[in-house]
Design a protein that fits this description.
The protein is mainly α. Helices cover about 70% and strands about 0% of the residues. It contains four helices and no strands. Helix 1 runs antiparallel to helix 2 and helix 2 packs antiparallel against helix 3. It is flat. The two termini are about 20 Å apart.
């Protein structure tokens, strides 16, 4: 699934309020741009995405079935 398909999925399932999917979309877009940016820029953007993911904390607690099911 490329970033366009993932974005369409997020829109079709009204999942814009699901931050874990938005992190996945950012990661997918970064992966697609990897060959066009410097290794330093890639590492910086990847670190930013990682930090945002860590800031979500244990967002999945109590939502395991919705998220992983």
């Amino acid at each position: 699934m490329d970033s366009k398909e993932l974005a369409q999925y997020i829109e079709a399932t009204d999942s814009i309020s699901k931050p874990w999917l938005l992190v996945q979309l950012r990661l997918k877009k970064l992966q697609e741009r990897r060959s066009t940016i410097s290794p330093e820029e890639y590492a910086k953007e990847l670190a930013d995405i990682h930090q945002d993911l860590m800031n979500l904390g244990e967002w999945w607690r109590g939502r395991e079935e919705e998220v992983f099911g």
